[in-house]
């Protein structure tokens, strides 16, 4: 995508902008300055620049009062200096690119004819032609309809509100104290006349479509600055500006005369509708096309113009999918970003290290992100659209622990934790350490945080509940607290099967609430609801959308140790919203924050049935690899397994390597001929059927990997972990696997065996955590009896 870039001055303040439809900007700024009574200047630097370059120009721009006196050559020199690194990289990219027989190979592997729109063109003289490809035929106004820029899209820097028009509304274009556009006409300060035949600049009421009045505007543009122009707002329109207004609309742009008040009113309505459709979302242009085609076909054909207007109104942010890092801040203001620093994906936060020839923007080295390819290609020239967030709502605190527990059928431990979390939701947002780590991109754009001049991130709360404690039931009061005051809630889980399992339970608990379920291939991906249940990867399509975000199984794959998903979750929540983490085994950094008292939390140290957690017992045993070569060494394990078989238990036998499953199953089948022994792993296409047979007791002993460490509850289970000293088994994995035992009230004393040749730190920490939870449960009177010993 290629866009227009211009500088705009209002009074003494300069800003840099990019545009999807320059006609909208011309009309907007003319009336903004006229109605505000402020003089201004608009300087077009390029009508056709690659989006990624344009966004860099906007981000790095620092206005200065002396710019009002700059000649076009000075603007051109400034632009070349700003883009020097990009042009050098582009020359390197061209040198390394290999053209095919009839054109360049695009990002998608398609051949592009160099003569077609979007081809690699104008890259002479260190890239100068990239922004000079917008060439008017002449300057006498004869070619109103013949001036077309190559490329049909525009983009805008990621900012929401412009000073002086923060009261923009969906019903029309509004300036301070004035209705800027309506179906009835355009009203300017002190002038109620409807102007339907074109702009009526100050001092030039005779302007018409059949000619130009260039009085007082005879500035010349040098040969080396073709395609650039300067216009004093409020002065008669120069020929180049008129040509821009008169040109034929491009794909995605409004086909009518944007100066017509009736057209402006309709366009304003469409801008409001577009913002409503995109509310709380972060979508690339291709995804917007898909959403509008599916949900709002009437907006699909010309949404670029509506998006441009919504941006100028302060309701929509437009940016590049991949952008260079923001300049570093020093004691004297902004500093230039480091040379060679990799751009970052604005959707997932990952470094975008890939570069390739691109037909969409015409560059030979267009950056793209490989981390989030599954959701569509995010590139430096991909338009990314985001809406502004309204201030987050605050949940209501519970009356008492007993009231919360009684209404939702919770145990005493569950009720205490839910009541503490409700108190957290009712608190005002706070920054500081409780807000969590943030990058320079995670700044609030709208709402209370911006109005107060503070910078906040969503506050966080940890529900640390042991395995089998009933975490899902505990979050019901939290969801209800926010939904009751009109808020939006997101529950994110790591796996699709968990989404499908939770959906009917949430639908039953919140029968009157619109619930949307999102996962790969979901038919509801463009639906909106008060309660959204989604896999963690789907969060990348949201931006400042939710008042409350609940992350289930925070420590589980794929969320654990994936900064991309953490970035997506951070951005899905409103800046002054709230996070609630659910975990039985929080990552060590969170545990340290709990110990230091910097992370609000509540512990649920006991299961719903009130019995203590089984404490693991260790048996000394050689490695599985050795035992497979010498089966007699399995003697100590066989003795323990016989005890479990004799008491009628279902046996989970965890191993660290998939390759160990088959040989071990054969040995155990020969040793225990009276029971059914099977094995399964992530590579087993029949895993679901085997787990179902295990639940039904058709299989007694199941050899498996950590694929079954979560989400599987089988009554009357015993757990054996072989090679418990393996580096693949950390503290969290050991606690999760041990948590498969003792989950039912009929058999709360399940057995847990750590079989290993060494007693490692991970095993010690896992046992210590389980014992600590039992002690806390006993201290608070949650236990019905003393802890069991395996």
UniProtKB/TrEMBL annotation:
Which keywords label this protein?
Answer: ATP-binding, DNA-binding, Helicase, Hydrolase, Nucleotide-binding
Report the Gene3D superfamilies cross-referenced here. P-loop containing nucleotide triphosphate hydrolases
Residue ranges with Basic and acidic residues bias: 108-128, 182-195
Q: Which PROSITE patterns match?
A: HELICASE_ATP_BIND_1 (PS51192), HELICASE_CTER (PS51194)
| InterPro entries the UniProt entry points to | DEAD/DEAH_box_helicase_dom (IPR011545), Helicase_ATP-bd (IPR014001), Helicase_C-like (IPR001650), P-loop_NTPase (IPR027417)
In residue numbers, the region (Disordered) covers 91-150, 182-223
Q: What is the lineage of its organism?
A: Bacteria, Bacillati, Bacillota, Bacilli, Bacillales
Using the record's annotation, list all stretches that form the Helicase ATP-binding domain: 452-604
| Gene Ontology MF: a single term | helicase activity
Q: What is this protein called?
A: Late competence protein required for DNA uptake (Superfamily II DNA/RNA helicase)
Q: Where is the Helicase C-terminal domain?
A: 640-790
